């Protein structure tokens, strides 16, 4: 998502191609199953964070209900495959559809209010979905969760271990990143940003603020549902905890620490999150204390997230080369929401 | 851009009233604006100018009365519908997209005149590419029109006050409006900047855009408007060419304490 | 329908509701006066319960004294949180403030788990096992105390806001912070008082409810959710709204739990806010600026 699109250099496509190539060879460098597993988790979180970023980064609304949609997708595909014997490959789009359906209904109700009220309402909706999942034992097996979920498979190719799953999720992450890139380069995405920046002004320009937000919210929930389904078929066990407050906080932390309103930010944030989570495994509950401090610290001292450090460096570099560019070391537009 | 001003009535407001609680902010106002005109809406503070503007822009539903825009009844239509029909507005307090560049401010504002959405962008259809190139050209043209072409890559947030006020007009123009509502565009400007604004409004009119502006700077109003409408306590008390209106004893009485303005 | 059971459900609901009101009053005060949505509010409830427990067990103080000390200590912690986070961020976007308070909530909840351990604790109270019968309704003395102490606290808060010098400052700030600052009101002091009051009330609620339940370091989550439901239903910033919505939520949950299903009791509250918000998007007692 490059906003100053003139002066397209060869550098950017090359960097992207290089990045994708590096991601593609990563599992071979990992060398063991544990690291490969972490790579899958990284990509899964990146996928979910990219979807959350549509709401937090582009629409500028804070949702505390995102994990619930991940859960809806996970349960949809898990139930369809374990109880109806539906192939997981079919369950995947259905999971996205069902999550989007929930997203449409919940978004339609919750987007009538904005700001903190919206955040609290999404928290309430998330809590309802959690409660229902936890208590509708006939359908979801309640707190015991669903076990023996079959792995994802495309024909003879089964995604029953970390490495193939990594490539599957990587492909989805790249696809989602492209969707986001196309979004911000389109009329639709510019309407998203206009709504984020100044809703009354956006409306005066003919943008239907409510519909715009609803569209973004539904798109985000659909992707979250698909991510949840992949998670279910990879881990093979799901419990209502997938919808819990813990997961809500984790996704928000990933997006904020990485850098909201950007594409690389959530991917980077997911890497930092998974990396720290694993390397601090011995620390126990102290881990979450550290994450909480990181979240607050990032919000206060680095509102653009980690990615903004790189942007800052790049901008400073740029203005050295071709004066006169922007006056001071301004953050790039990608830094986005304030 | 849009076809030259065709004659005829573009905006017809009849018996428009807005009551807040027990307070009548706008009472029974009837006025029209002809296509191609520049009309000034003046009156002392609290006269109901901004309330009237908000009703015209769709952000405030009228209590009674009607609004017709370009022959269509728009009474009570919400903001985005008015925007889609071709009414753009600026706001009293600086209102733009702060963390986007000037260019992106204008591109985001061109919602009404663009068609290729997310799907087209994903497929990178030829129509999308054509539209994007055209949009970019048009946005740069509008920035140049507002003397901001050298600031295209600057964040709106980082601009000077005068630049921000011009960017607001650029944003409004990007929607290619038929009617432009300017809410105190000269507020906080020095005489030189005011003069620049007058020039700009003239050029806006020359683009075929009808302008209705609320303004306190009488010099600006007198030099750019074809016609003035004066509100006091929500009621229209005078209407006509600036020279006549500004010497109207009733208008002078309302503005008592301010020097009468030579037009 | 059995009247005895029904009356019992109503009584239980009113007691629970009163605890919600105490939590929500602080939440709504902080929003009404300072325009801050404090996600960490529930953590002060949790701290209230834990400090009561520790003061009681470690220092051997009786329950009432422990509860009072806990309310005061937590009020001080609230002031500290304000000084460290909310006051420096007061000019920032609501997004930043909301996220920082989420960070604070995670910090306190997980820090609590580190310090207090994840295993449940039981707050000792001499009133916990004594039963009081009012007509056909049976309540433990502790639950009667929850209700009575909450009523007294709320009346005190009302009088404080209505008549004290600081209460007047708070109301002036709620109506127009810039105007209040211009008339010489010390906004910093208003922040401090509001946080002390709000967090003290949350702690009081925790100290009162503590003996009737098991306490975990994660109960702050639960508390802030209840508080939000009540505040949103009543209208953000409305103290009267919080009172009605809190009691209503308590009673409806209790009746729902009794007659429909205990499992879905939690969901009833959420369903209520959704119904209310679809009907009145800004809450039952929606207000313009100002406290009421």
TrEMBL record, chain A:
<dbReference type="InterPro" id="IPR001851">
    <property type="entry name" value="ABC_transp_permease"/>
</dbReference>
<feature type="transmembrane region" description="Helical">
    <location>
        <begin position="40"/>
        <end position="60"/>
    </location>
</feature>
<dbReference type="InterPro" id="IPR043428">
    <property type="entry name" value="LivM-like"/>
</dbReference>
<feature type="transmembrane region" description="Helical">
    <location>
        <begin position="214"/>
        <end position="236"/>
    </location>
</feature>
<feature type="transmembrane region" description="Helical">
    <location>
        <begin position="92"/>
        <end position="111"/>
    </location>
</feature>
<keyword id="KW-0472">Membrane</keyword>
<dbReference type="Pfam" id="PF02653">
    <property type="entry name" value="BPD_transp_2"/>
</dbReference>
<keyword id="KW-0812">Transmembrane</keyword>
<feature type="transmembrane region" description="Helical">
    <location>
        <begin position="12"/>
        <end position="34"/>
    </location>
</feature>
<keyword id="KW-1133">Transmembrane helix</keyword>
<feature type="transmembrane region" description="Helical">
    <location>
        <begin position="165"/>
        <end position="184"/>
    </location>
</feature>
<dbReference type="GO" id="GO:0015658">
    <property type="term" value="F:branched-chain amino acid transmembrane transporter activity"/>
</dbReference>
<dbReference type="GO" id="GO:0005886">
    <property type="term" value="C:plasma membrane"/>
</dbReference>
<feature type="transmembrane region" description="Helical">
    <location>
        <begin position="118"/>
        <end position="137"/>
    </location>
</feature>
<protein>
    <submittedName>
        <fullName>Amino acid ABC transporter permease</fullName>
    </submittedName>
</protein>
From TrEMBL, chain B:
<dbReference type="Pfam" id="PF00005">
    <property type="entry name" value="ABC_tran"/>
</dbReference>
<dbReference type="InterPro" id="IPR027417">
    <property type="entry name" value="P-loop_NTPase"/>
</dbReference>
<dbReference type="InterPro" id="IPR017871">
    <property type="entry name" value="ABC_transporter-like_CS"/>
</dbReference>
<dbReference type="GO" id="GO:0005524">
    <property type="term" value="F:ATP binding"/>
</dbReference>
<keyword id="KW-0067">ATP-binding</keyword>
<dbReference type="InterPro" id="IPR032823">
    <property type="entry name" value="BCA_ABC_TP_C"/>
</dbReference>
<dbReference type="InterPro" id="IPR003439">
    <property type="entry name" value="ABC_transporter-like_ATP-bd"/>
</dbReference>
<dbReference type="InterPro" id="IPR051120">
    <property type="entry name" value="ABC_AA/LPS_Transport"/>
</dbReference>
<keyword id="KW-0547">Nucleotide-binding</keyword>
<dbReference type="GO" id="GO:0016887">
    <property type="term" value="F:ATP hydrolysis activity"/>
</dbReference>
<keyword id="KW-0813">Transport</keyword>
<dbReference type="InterPro" id="IPR003593">
    <property type="entry name" value="AAA+_ATPase"/>
</dbReference>
<dbReference type="GO" id="GO:0005886">
    <property type="term" value="C:plasma membrane"/>
</dbReference>
<feature type="domain" description="ABC transporter">
    <location>
        <begin position="11"/>
        <end position="258"/>
    </location>
</feature>
<dbReference type="Pfam" id="PF12399">
    <property type="entry name" value="BCA_ABC_TP_C"/>
</dbReference>
From TrEMBL, chain C:
<dbReference type="GO" id="GO:0005886">
    <property type="term" value="C:plasma membrane"/>
</dbReference>
<feature type="transmembrane region" description="Helical">
    <location>
        <begin position="18"/>
        <end position="37"/>
    </location>
</feature>
<keyword id="KW-0472">Membrane</keyword>
<feature type="transmembrane region" description="Helical">
    <location>
        <begin position="67"/>
        <end position="85"/>
    </location>
</feature>
<feature type="transmembrane region" description="Helical">
    <location>
        <begin position="228"/>
        <end position="252"/>
    </location>
</feature>
<dbReference type="Pfam" id="PF02653">
    <property type="entry name" value="BPD_transp_2"/>
</dbReference>
<feature type="transmembrane region" description="Helical">
    <location>
        <begin position="195"/>
        <end position="216"/>
    </location>
</feature>
<keyword id="KW-0029">Amino-acid transport</keyword>
<dbReference type="InterPro" id="IPR052157">
    <property type="entry name" value="BCAA_transport_permease"/>
</dbReference>
<feature type="transmembrane region" description="Helical">
    <location>
        <begin position="97"/>
        <end position="118"/>
    </location>
</feature>
<keyword id="KW-1003">Cell membrane</keyword>
<protein>
    <submittedName>
        <fullName>Amino acid ABC transporter permease</fullName>
    </submittedName>
</protein>
<comment type="similarity">
    <text>Belongs to the binding-protein-dependent transport system permease family. LivHM subfamily.</text>
</comment>
<dbReference type="InterPro" id="IPR001851">
    <property type="entry name" value="ABC_transp_permease"/>
</dbReference>
<feature type="transmembrane region" description="Helical">
    <location>
        <begin position="144"/>
        <end position="161"/>
    </location>
</feature>
